[in-house]
Amino acid sequence: MSKLFLDPKQIERARSAASAIADNITDFILARTTVAVERTVLRLFGLDGVDADFVPLANVVVDQALEAGKLSEGIATYFVNAILQENLTVQEVGEAVASGRLHLFQLPKAPEHLIQQKAIELAAQSLARIRANRQKREEYLQRLGEGKQPYIYVIVATGNIYEDVIQARTAARQGADIIAVIRSTGQSLLDYVPYGPTTEGFGGTFATQENFRIMRKALDEVGEELGRYIRLCNYCSGLCMPEIAAMGALERLDVMLNDALYGILFRDINMQRTLVDQHFSRMINAYAGIIINTGEDNYLTTADAVQAAHTVLASQFINEQMAFRSGLPAEQMGLGHAFEMNPMIEDGFLLELAQAQMAREIFPNAPLKYMPPTKHMTGNIFRGLVQDTLFNVVGIMSHQGIQLLGMMTEAIHTPLMHDRQIAIETAKYVFNNMRHLGDEIQFKPDGIIVRRAHQVLDEATRLLEEIRDMGLLEALSRGVFADVKRTLTGGKGLNGVVMRAENYYNPFEILLRKELGLEQEVNV
Length: 524
Description:
The protein is an alpha/beta fold. It folds into 2 domains: 32-123, Helicase, Ruva Protein, domain 3 (Orthogonal Bundle), CATH 1.10.8.1000; 145-450, Alpha-Beta Barrel (TIM Barrel), CATH 3.20.20. It has 20 helices and 11 strands. Helix 10 runs antiparallel to helix 11 and helix 14 (348-362) runs parallel beside helix 15 (381-397). The radius of gyration is 23 Å and the shape is globular. GO terms for molecular function: catalytic activity; cobalamin binding.
């Protein structure tokens, strides 16, 4: 029974509007592909490496298809045809294209059924590897166990993967459950994935497959030492969203930021491009057992957290329904929200608790991702520590799933190791001493907390119905989220969007749809 006395019919009304929004945008998505989706197909086939100019081979091959006007059919058909015709491996075909020895579209065509048979064989091998990674994670969790929810989530962001390893191991020993390796500033706007281990990044470390492999190995080692599985998080947002999802699945990452709305609003990535990319990337994450994080918390950095709270809830409803349509279960949805109200507001704590408790009740199976105060951190480390402590109190009271710890030095510098240690120690203190506080508390039916939750749900429902009637793309152009307006043809990456031809073929999409139950109506 709802502690907030939320009306199930009202929640269903909001969810129904979000479902209609998701249905409409999914039809739009499935009519298109992108250069990133097709590069992901090649990476999943096993193509790796760069050419003499350090351009990833996946980019080289897909660019050849784009220039030839053939990408609308999908890269798989022509790439696999070259494997058959030339009797080469996946890697050999990519290298031959990069060197100029081979042009995919000048080869005779093998029978279609032979091409598709080989493509499905290669795709099945890749998915078997991902499935084995998921099984390995489950084995670790059964043998070692993990921390209690809310998971303590902290970041490392040195720019050097080897220094990140040192900091990540230290954070795990201090009590962290999830280590997030922040990406180098601006990587989300690169239309290629950097290659190999990297030691120079700004504000973070480049997301590369080798960096994923290095950090995964380090966390497995420290997890064995501690007797606790440590989850690894990175960011498959931006122009290479599905490629990084594939890399994460192949290297056994556990958590991924994976939200098209975040990229549209805060990185000015073209909405057509990133919505298509998101759909395929979420299918990969669903199959890999990766928890996705969404970015609604960022809305409150540009819009007022009191006035715009309903936009966060509306976006959570939309993200939930879009995730269902990629086969992602609720248990893998780290829907985002944040403790971002001005701390000078009277009873602000009650309003924050109302928002967090409401999200918990509306999305009962989701490991909600709760973000700390950042907008109103001033550099006063003493007040900052109090703000973070109140945030932790709300997190434990409302049973959040993932608690991204705030740092008292938030407005000063990238956290140092001792800043992180203080944050972890104080969070553990609150979580332990208040573990069952939320279970002991009932709210007044006519009190501030209940009235606030009803107000936000009502406003979110009305907003969702407006978006349903106008369409999500039009809503984004009007700036309904985060007070940021974007256009259908604006932003970065539009030239990488291609309408699918009638004979479009993607063997991974075919297999994943079957494995994820998307051949039938998805139960939402």
